[in-house]
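Chapter review: from sequence to fold.
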Amino acid sequence: MTSSSDMRRFLEYRVIVCADCDTTRTLSVSSSGNLVCSTCGSDNWMYLPTMATISQSILIKGELRADEDLTVEGSVEGKIDLVDHNLWISSHGHVCAEVRARNVIIAGTLIGRITASERVEIKLSASVEGSIKCLRVVIVDGARFNGLVSTDMSRAWTTTSLISSKTQSAKMG
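The token string follows.
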């Protein structure tokens, strides 16, 4: 059996998503012995397994494919194809692309088309313009979104489907 102190040592300095900082951070142990965000001290965090990161100083133009989760803190223009993996766009990230992933979490800027097999989440600091096709969408109150949403995964994106009366009713500004 693993003790709680062993678990804390295992998770300390691991990469997490802090809900209060709204970005990726590391964990540290507070004076009370709890695991908290190393930057703001919040205990409102989620552990992230190791993933590839495009840092703030990097700009990628073209097609990007990965067989692991991806964090974008820099800029990507073109196409991102993660199929069965997750995409996290940090508050500093800027993506102008066609995106395909399992889950997409946006805290930065995204312009383009998103197809997610499970979920898209648009955080408070996010700005999203384009179309979203997925099973579930979460748009935090106050986030900026302009585009179309479809939760019908059986339909392919076409010019006709984007302007149909069914998807027009989901148009938000």
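Two observations follow directly from the output. The chain has two domains: 4-47, 52-168. Residues 52-168 form one domain.
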